[in-house]
Amino acid sequence: MVDESSTSIPPSSKKHLPHHRRQIYLQMVVGAIILFCGIVIGSGATFLHLKDRMIMRRPRPQLPDVVEDIQSRYNLTDEQAEKVEDIFKRSRETMRNLSEESRKKIEAEFQKVSIEMKEILTPEQYEQWENDFKSRRRGPGGFGPGGPGRGGPGPGGFGPGRRDRRRFGPNRPETPEPNSSPD
Length: 183
Known about the structure:
Distance between the termini: 109 Å
Shape: flat
Radius of gyration: 33 Å
Largest sheet: 2 strands, antiparallel
Number of strands: 2
Order of helices and strands: HHHHEE
Number of helices: 4
């Protein structure tokens, strides 16, 4: 038989309740801090991982705004401002044409590389290489439809800090082939 006077269950008292509540609140605060820190760390890691994909460009100012700024800054007459506007119009058109020419030359060089790679790779290797090459050209740091990506192409045709460079070997200075003579 069990003696009721010797049971080890203490009677319920209100002294233990505040300590218990304090512990629950402390756990909730610590949990909230851990959650907040996790959100901050996760956001920071995401930003660092995706920063190469984000291209932050300021919009190019409109030509009338540029001319107006120059006119007020240098106290130009209306006649001078018209001449400045003509200069900038011609310059922008020339730069647009140069950019288009550069894109065409770059595309031709990419085609040349593709043809040369096709000659040395098996059909399976070439198909895999071509898929990788096309995806890199469109990716961050590569050349896509809008011209050079952020930072332009780095060694091996990749943007700065790209992990994919490892696949093509370390960055070594080019050495002339034994049969070629220096120019």
